[in-house]
């Protein structure tokens, strides 16, 4: 493992100035992704800026009903927070479907959003990988690509985005607050993760040196039922092969509001907006959920080992929408 300098920061300003934005430094929060990748020689920061002492640990309800979450709130704290279980159950379910208790105790909200892909070729410094080494090729295209994405892929990268929490954020809608060398700004969560296209190494709309300080969830949909369904090789401590986060609100027998996002199948947290639109105004019936699944997966494209993800994701969508409907109250 390469050596690095460590600077614990006491304030956001100090963290941003210590990071410097020069490409040689990285923020470190729980360290559950970053330290792994440093040990594997995939990430090589010469300096790490510790952010755990920053005052970004609060979860608060704003006057307009939105929920403001500090970037250092751990996955465990967020999943069990009373405001989250009461008003954003999809977020709680998605977080608890991820990793293990020990990891969730360390993992932070900001770190989860910034976590890197689990593509084994990305994590193997001897393999060709355009994300790790731009222009080097992609060993996954004709390799063991069973875990890889079927939506949003390019000829340069087919890596799936691994986060469960981000699937819920995509469905719920949220805004990120970033602070960097040039001040603070906000960006919609849906615009933050990039498609790989011809630059898979550029994963986020984040400028050098910027720190995520908060995630603000949109106001909850009143009366909605929610369900996060994660399908994977074993029941815990495993990444999704396909997952679906669904929210349904029903009024007088028809769907007033629908939200749907997918995990394990997209190169970024996959917000199925066209499928949501097709569901609004329809009766909450399986036939309509199947149509929505068809729309969500219309552009899916598989490689040699991951074609099974298309029917798997279809089933996940239909089942998650059915379960969300059962949890909804018809107003
Ligand atoms: C064995 C294992 C299994 C896992 N299973 C799952 C799973 O099933 N589902 C799932 O969703 N996740 C899973 N994870 C991933 C886990 O959720 C992430 O590792 C964790 O959320 C990262 O948070 P962290 O605070 O530890 O980030 P760190 O490791 O500290 O940082 C990760 C990255 O984010 C950057 N960063 C951290 N905080 C900020 C910030 N505030 N602003 C800007 N950049 C920042 C760092 O520089 C680094 O690049 C698993 C991880 C492991 C090791
Ligand atoms: S799929 Fe993406 S991350 Fe995996 S080897 Fe190819 S370029 Fe790298």
Automatic annotation (TrEMBL):
What SUPFAM superfamilies does the entry give? CO dehydrogenase flavoprotein C-terminal domain-like (SSF55447), FAD-binding/transporter-associated domain-like (SSF56176)
Q: Name one GO molecular function term.
A: oxidoreductase activity
A Pfam entry, by short name: CO_deh_flav_C
Stored SMART domains: CO_deh_flav_C (SM01092)
PANTHER family tied to this protein: OXIDOREDUCTASE (PTHR42659:SF1), XANTHINE DEHYDROGENASE SUBUNIT C-RELATED (PTHR42659)
Descriptive protein name = Xanthine dehydrogenase YagS FAD-binding subunit
Q: Which UniProt keywords apply?
A: FAD, Flavoprotein
| Residues in FAD-binding PCMH-type domain copies | 1-222
In the record, which residues are listed under signal peptide? none
């Amino acid at each position: 493992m390469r050596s690095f300098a460590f600077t614990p920061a006491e304030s956001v300003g100090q963290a941003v100035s210590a990071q410097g934005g020069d490409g040689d430094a990285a923020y470190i929060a729980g360290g559950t992704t970053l330290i792994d990748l440093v040990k594997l020689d995939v990430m090589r920061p010469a300096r790490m800026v510790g952010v755990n002492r920053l005052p970004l640990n609060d979860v608060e309800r704003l006057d307009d009903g939105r929920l403001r979450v500090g970037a250092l709130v751990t996955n465990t704290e967020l999943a069990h927070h009373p405001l989250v279980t009461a008003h954003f159950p999809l977020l709680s379910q998605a977080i608890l479907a991820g990793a293990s208790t020990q990891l969730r105790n360390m993992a932070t909200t900001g770190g989860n959003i910034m976590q890197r892909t689990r593509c084994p070729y990305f994590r193997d410094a001897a393999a060709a990988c355009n994300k790790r080494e731009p222009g080097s090729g992609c060993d996954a295209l004709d390799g063991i690509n069973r875990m890889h994405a079927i939506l949003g892929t390019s000829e340069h990268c087919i890596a799936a985005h691994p986060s469960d929490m981000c699937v819920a954020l995509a469905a719920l809608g949220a805004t990120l607050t970033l602070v960097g060398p040039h001040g603070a700004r906000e960006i919609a969560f849906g615009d933050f993760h990039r498609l790989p296209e011809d630059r898979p190494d550029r994963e986020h709309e984040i400028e050098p040196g910027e720190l995520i300080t908060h995630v603000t969830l949109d106001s909850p949909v009143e009366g909605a039922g929610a369900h996060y369904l994660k399908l994977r090789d074993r029941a815990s401590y495993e990444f999704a092969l396909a997952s679906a986060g669904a929210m349904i609100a029903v009024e007088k027998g028809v769907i007033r509001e629908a939200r749907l996002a997918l995990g394990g199948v997209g190169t970024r947290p996959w917000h199925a907006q066209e499928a949501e639109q097709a569901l609004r105004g329809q009766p909450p019936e399986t036939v309509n959920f199947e149509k929505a699944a068809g729309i969500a997966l219309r552009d899916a494209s598989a490689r040699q080992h991951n074609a099974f993800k298309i029917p798997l994701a279809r089933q996940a969508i239909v089942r998650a929408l059915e379960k969300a409907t059962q949890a909804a109250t018809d107003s």
